[in-house]
Amino acid sequence: MACVAVNSLIRTLEIEFLQPHPRPIIQEMELIPFNKDLIQSLHAKLGFLIQLLDESRMDGVEAIKELETKLRDVAFRVEDEIELHLVLLCKELDLYLGQGDTDEAINTPHSHRLKLSHVLQQAIEDIDAIKEELEKVMIAVQGRETTLDDELVKMDGSGSSNHASQTEDIMVGKNNEFETIRMMLIQHPSKQREVVSIQGMGGIGKTTLARRVYENRSIVSHFDRRLWVVVSQYHNKRQMLLDVLGSKDNVNNNSDEDLALQLYQSLKCQRYLVVMDDIWSIESWNDVKSCFPDDINGSRVLLTTHIAEVATCIGSNNNFSHQMQFLDQSESWDLFSNKACKSHGIEFETIGRPIVEKCKGLPLAVVVVAGLFSKLNSLDEWKNTANALISSTSISTLDDEECWRILSLSYSHLPHNLKACFLYLGVFPEDYKINANDLARLWAAEGLVKAFKNESFEAVSKRYINELMDRNLILVSKRSSCGRKIKEFRVHDLLHAFCVREGHNQSLLHVVDESGSNFPEKGVRWIRMERMSFEDFDISALHSLSKHCRSIFYFLESPKHSIILKFFSLLRVLYVTNFNSTSPTVHIHLRYLRISMAYNLCDSLFPNAWNLQTFSVSGDIEFNHLKFPELQYIHCRKFNGAFPKSVHQNLQVISGLQDNHYNQEFLTKVPYLKKEAEV
């Protein structure tokens, strides 16, 4: 519960006060020498406290939950006070230089030092009090036998397992169903374009089955063209068309009608297979069905859905419809034991069999529980976890609260650093293809990743992503050519919904929906905007969340109005897919900036965003004012102006440059550059 707040505060202390080259105004005010002991003390106490919570593994104890809530609130308050103090410093500097309202008072450097001292001293007192309470609770709990009533389920949360990273997706007990679908696609005598449907409840393996069929050799050789598109609940006609076409650059400016015609022409006279995965409504099919020509050559459209009405209305007829079956006990056990990767000894089987029975043949439930068991190392841990799970009335119905309990149990056993990173996945839309490298930079910018000795932020992030994969919490969709590195992944709808819900419950994430009327009373850290229009939208309601907001994710296509960024003075991540706005003015805490086109990037941004780590823009970058000593990643079309020496020391990746806008001499000036382009 406190993981995001504590990790973020620790990183803020490091990046503002403990790095070799802090921002100039902090050095000018001599804030660090005056408060050095307090800064180091608070940093050490926070690190010790989060380690203590990790090692105690007492997430279910109510008293621990209350202390974590206290710790979260203290960490958020202290971080807000520190960062707002730095914003005030920069504003006063502008006043001093004659760039602001001269009626405002300017404090002395000594008053700023004292103010920061007060914040740090109060924080240390609060942290010490929480630590003292935590130690008392731990002594009381550890002094008696662990029981189910205590809800203590121990596990070792350290390190990543190596087994799952080597394991391909396992499909158990679906050979008959695979053959059924394969015959519908290539052996049925009908030469008309037929729509084949796979239906079944969430988590039953529809997508896995469709993917296995799609990649089968006989299917690949039978069809001239194969296309795959994920539809999901909130379908978007244009996005579906772009996805099927492959989102080529030369089609982005075309109308929907042009895109539909282009798709139709590309499939005309071809024997094709189009998979429409996770289709929720008849309307989504109606939007694109005219794009699929029927040349009486045996073309097929394969759809997956959990809604029977959709399958009935869209599918050709009963001869082309398949209802997914649950796994039987033998199949469930095979899947569980493969995913848990435990020895098949009598003790493990005695403990595991009742758990598998509780899953009632639902593959997702089996996989989630197996992922939990894969991290347990002793017989006692198996027994305690099994007892906790068996006490649940059901773990197979996704609409049942008990399923959320299982997910919560799996989540609670994550190390605190990994908890924070997992919840952050909720900032992306459902079914979003998440780039692993990009996510690593976002985690670092948000302060969720802590680098250890001899290990970079990038290495830690990759280890975390592999850990999430090992626990079956993400679905790998693309690997590197060597197969060892994860390049892209998705989050299953159920787990994504859990991240969104848990993020909301912890006052971390708010998703702005179509109505725009569900704004929380309390502030949030992360805001995601998608599938909405600014027409009749009260923009002031969004600005009311600006006080504590650190990340804005903007997935709108063509907004008529823009948020006013000056209200978000603590913003550190701005992730935009299509956005027009004025310059971000004084955003001194900005660490990650992705925009769809270049702002008028003037002096108001560059002197202040001292800690910017990632800068991505689809246009050109003007470097005349660049002073970003922490910059590690740049994506742009070309550079304007001289490439400044101030960004050389940490810059690692330059991506997107047109070939005629750089040369080898230019690149040799950057000593730690890893690569010039990134796919």
The computed structural class is alpha/beta
For the largest beta-sheet, the strand count, sense and barrel status come to: 8 strands, parallel
The strand order across the widest sheet is: 9-10-11-12-13-14-16-18
Number of strands: 18
- Indicate the multimeric state: single chain
Strand content: 5-15%
Number of helices: 23
Radius of gyration: 27 Å
Outline, from the CA principal axes? globular
Instruction: Summarize model confidence as the mean pLDDT.
Output: 79
Could you characterize what this model shows?
With 679 residues, this protein is of the alpha/beta class. It has four domains: 1-153, no CATH class; 164-170 and 327-412, Helicase, Ruva Protein, domain 3, CATH 1.10.8; 176-323, 3-Layer(aba) Sandwich (Rossmann fold), CATH 3.40.50.300; 519-668. 43% of the residues lie in helices and 12% in strands. The protein has 23 helices and 18 strands. The strands form four sheets. An eight-stranded parallel β-sheet has the order 9-10-11-12-13-14-16-18. A five-stranded parallel β-sheet has the order 2-3-4-1-5, with helices on both faces. A three-stranded antiparallel β-sheet has the order 6-8-7. A hairpin with a 6-residue loop joins strand 7 and strand 8. Helix 6 packs across helix 7 (206-214), helix 9 runs parallel beside helix 10 (256-267) and helix 19 crosses helix 20. The longest helix has 35 residues, at 62-96. It starts with a helix and ends in an 11-residue tail after the last helix. 40% of the residues are buried.
